[in-house]
Specification:
The protein is an alpha+beta fold. The chain has a 4-stranded antiparallel beta sheet. This is H(+)-transporting V0 sector ATPase subunit a. It comes from Spiromyces aspiralis.
Length: 185
């Protein structure tokens, strides 16, 4: 296997990109026939499936490929064939120093995104733990509110007096206590 950061010294005839794994074999065969074997082709499967909204909403398996040819005309032909197969092409500089800088930038971007994802995961976990601590109190409060509104919905509304009228019963010896509670409320 070829490491992508160790490319030949003059990749002016090289094309690199990503293609659906299901199209890879046909893509290689078409390249081989159209260039009459004047190419070096290497592909590696990407371990994790990636989301491609042009193909589907769910993750799909893809492979990364690199094609080395002789000259600009063959390179253009490879690019056209790759685009017809729906491949995503990525520029590769012919300068090894620039390729090394690009590799460092990509690795830094990956590390930064991993840090952001880890921070988001930690924040989500902390929020869920806080909610888990308070959930029993919230359940009690919601049940009380629900019981209150359920009781209020049993009242009749008197439009003329702008009042709620409730009918009920109580023990005769507790009538004074109920009257006091109603006046106090």
């Amino acid at each position: 296997r070829i490491e992508l950061d160790v490319l030949p010294e003059s990749p002016e005839g090289s094309v690199a990109g990503v293609i659906l794994r299901s199209r890879l074999a046909t893509f290689e065969r078409v390249l081989w026939r159209s260039l009459r074997g004047n190419l070096f082709f290497n592909a590696v499967d990407i371990e994790e499936d990636t989301i491609d909204l042009d193909v589907a909403d769910e993750p799909v398996p893809k492979s990364v490929f690199v094609v080395f040819t002789h000259g600009g005309a063959l390179r253009e032909r490879v690019e056209k064939i790759a685009e017809s197969f729906g491949a995503s092409l990525y520029p590769v500089s012919d300068n090894p120093e620039i390729r090394s800088e690009d590799l460092i930038q990509v690795m830094n971007a990956i590390d930064e995104r991993k840090r952001v994802l880890d921070q988001n995961l930690a924040t989500r976990r902390a929020t869920l733990e806080e909610v888990a601590r308070d959930i029993s109190e919230w359940i009690v409060a919601v049940k009380k509110e629900k019981a209150t509104f359920h009781t209020l919905n049993m009242f009749n509304h008197d439009i003329n007096r702008n009042a709620l009228i409730a009918e009920g019963w109580c023990a005769t010896n507790e009538v004074d206590i109920v009257r006091f509670a109603l006046k106090h409320a």
